């Protein structure tokens, strides 16, 4: 169950990163509220997952999901540049996530 909590926490990290961008420096109340709720939920689920997962594994996976997810949302929703170097960087992050998962018990 800890892995499910961690996955949801990572997805919520992508949500709060996107809505923070949309909040325009916290000047848009709707997106600001979504950002804060998603942040609290993400941190809460991460802390629950850390009860049974190693710190290094949980935190690395959480930030990796957030980084790759934000990368994908940036390209698909916000029209950010898709360059070969950015793709390689994202693939390296994903490979690190897979290795962390394989190395944890």
Determine the oligomeric state from the structure: single chain
Overall SS class: mainly alpha
Radius of gyration: 15 Å
Helix content: over 70%
User: Given the C-alpha coordinates, what overall shape results?
Assistant: flat
Main beta-sheet annotation: none
Number of helices: 4
Flag low-confidence runs.
Answer: none
What's the helix-strand series? HHHH
User: How many β-strands, per DSSP?
Assistant: 0
Termini separation: 14 Å
Q: Roughly what fraction of the amino acids lie in strands?
A: under 5%
Description:
Keywords: Cell membrane, Membrane, Transmembrane, Transmembrane helix, Transport. This is Guanidinium exporter. It is a multi-pass membrane protein. Pfam families: Multi_Drug_Res. With 105 residues, the protein is mostly helical. The protein has one domain. The protein has helices spanning 2-22, 29-49, 55-76, 84-103. The mean pLDDT is 95.
């Amino acid at each position: 169950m800890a892995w499910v909590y961690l996955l949801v926490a990572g997805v919520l990290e992508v949500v709060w990163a996107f809505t923070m961008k949309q909040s325009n420096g916290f000047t848009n109340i709707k997106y600001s509220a979504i950002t804060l709720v998603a942040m609290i939920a993400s941190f809460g689920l991460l802390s629950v997952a850390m009860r049974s997962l190693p710190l290094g594994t949980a935190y690395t996976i959480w930030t990796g999901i957030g980084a790759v997810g934000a990368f994908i949302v940036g390209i698909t929703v916000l029209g950010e540049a898709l360059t070969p170097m950015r793709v390689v960087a994202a693939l390296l992050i994903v490979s690190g996530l897979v290795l962390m998962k394989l190395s944890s018990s």
